[in-house]
Amino acid sequence: GQTISSAVVTASVLIGTSGGITLGSPTVAGPKVQFQITGGVHGERYLVTCLATTSGGKKVAGVGELDVRDY
Q: Is 39 helix (H, G, I), strand (E, B) or coil?
């Protein structure tokens, strides 16, 4: 089977204006891509995307929305 050979993560602001979110460098751990998310502003929503490339050259994307709340 194919394995993940590389990955790139990005974030953009969906709701809000600051863009104060930081993504750590992605690491490949078996069939998973791991990265740390820090920062963000209370009440803002971000779109986080991970684009992975497999050993066979196939592109696979994972996308999620992240709402930031301070408690």
A: strand
| pLDDT tens digit sequence for 25-64 | 999 998 999 999 999 999 999 999 999 999 999 999 999 9
Global pTM value: 0.87
**DSSP label at 24?**
P
What six digits make up the tokens of 68?
Answer: 């930031």
Q: Would you say 63 and 49 are in contact if contact means Cβ atoms under 8 Å apart?
A: yes
63: buried, middle or exposed (CB in 10 Å: 19+, 13-18, 0-12)? exposed
Contact 48, 23 (CB under 8 A): yes
Judge contact between 50 and 32, C-beta under 8 A: no
